[in-house]
Amino acid sequence: MNEPARLNYSTHILEGLIDTDRPLGSVNDMTITTILSMFLDSAVKFQLPQNGELLAPESYDQQLMDFFHLPFPVTAFETCVSAGQTTEPRTILCFEPDMEILGYLPQLLKICLDAGTTKGAFCVFFRKTSEGWTLGDTAVFLPYENKLHKSKSDLVFEGIPFVLLADSYFSKNSSRKTMTVEKADYEDAFTILSACTYTSCEGIETVILKAPEKLNQKRAKRNKKPFYDYHLLAVKPRQRQLASDENTTQEGLPIKRASPRPHMRRGYFRTQYNKLQWLAPTTVNGTGGVKYKDYILIGGI
To answer: How far apart are CA 39 and CA 68, in angstroms?
Structure first.
């Protein structure tokens, strides 16, 4: 398997992030931008397939939402999103609101109190523009106990928007009376939900894409930020016996029914024994029986 191209967005963000925020007046007069850069530096980083399309939105359901949980307390997801004929780099920094983090960003405590829970993930968004990497004015708090419902044709989940960079947000939205979150932020939040579904699932492991050691040594000599290790999602199908899983009753007696036509069964998630399991695509009644596929979710689906 060829090694996938490294995105290295976090390194480029930390080298070129535009700090438009004013000092907080506490925590050694650091700005929010500076604090979040510190979180990004320490985050466990995942490189997702281009477009972050791990799951189609219409296939998401409450069963999968119930398994939403960050794989690490501070996690960064990097991907590329299609925008017409171009692609837009994205980095989504997510962190759980523990007391250390709330000590740096105490205004987040009110958001947790309003939501009635500290169990969830704060999600902030870095985007690349013509001017360079910027931090989004708004962010989203996603409680772990979340409920899906449909609004018109779109899936909607409970995301609590909040202003991250107040000066920047209110200068752009001086006439806005209520706080809203950009549509792009919700789309990126769905990317997080999809990624967390996979990291919560049995039979799916992470492969470490190691940082290039020699290149990092050269970067260190030039006082440049290092490239980081990345986690890649590796899907290893749970092998199953059709005879035991699908063609017998609970008592072990055979089910009398016509054999299905040869067909390709799509991969899907299911819960068993309170665990989320991934069942890989299989060929049913095809030549040579069932064919198992091993693949790694890298570089697109």
So the answer is: 21
Spatial contact of 89 and 7, defined as CB atoms under 8 Å apart? yes
Q: What is the DSSP-derived secondary structure letter of residue 226?
A: P
Regarding beta strands 74-83 and 44-47, do their DSSP bridges make them parallel or antiparallel, or are they unpaired? parallel
Query: Whole-structure pTM over 0.85, yes or no?
Result: no
In Å, how far are 61, 81, 202 from 150, measured between CA atoms?
11, 24, 28
Q: How confident is the model at residue 5 (pLDDT cuts 50, 70, 90)?
A: confident
DSSP output for 92-104: EEEE---HHHHHH
Question: Tens digits of per-residue pLDDT, 116-174?
Answer: 999 999 999 998 887 888 888 888 999 998 888 877 667 778 888 888 887 777 777 66
Encoded amino acid at 212, one letter = P
Alpha-helical regions (H) of the chain: 9-16, 32-42, 62-65, 99-104, 107-115, 166-172, 183-199, 213-221, 242-245
DSSP string for 1-70: -PPPPP--HHHHHHHH----PPP-SSTTT--HHHHHHHHHHHSEEEEPPGGG-SS-GGG--HHHHTT---
Single-letter amino acid code for the residue at 153: S
Name the phi and psi angles at 216, rounded to 5: -65, -35
Domain segments of the chain: what residues?
9-234, 238-293
Output the CA–CA distances (angstroms, integers) from residue 289 to 156, 226, 240, 292, 295, in the order listed. 41, 49, 12, 10, 19
Asked if residues 139 and 161 have their Cβ atoms less than 8 Å apart, the reply is yes
Q: How far is CA 109 from the centre of its chain?
A: 23
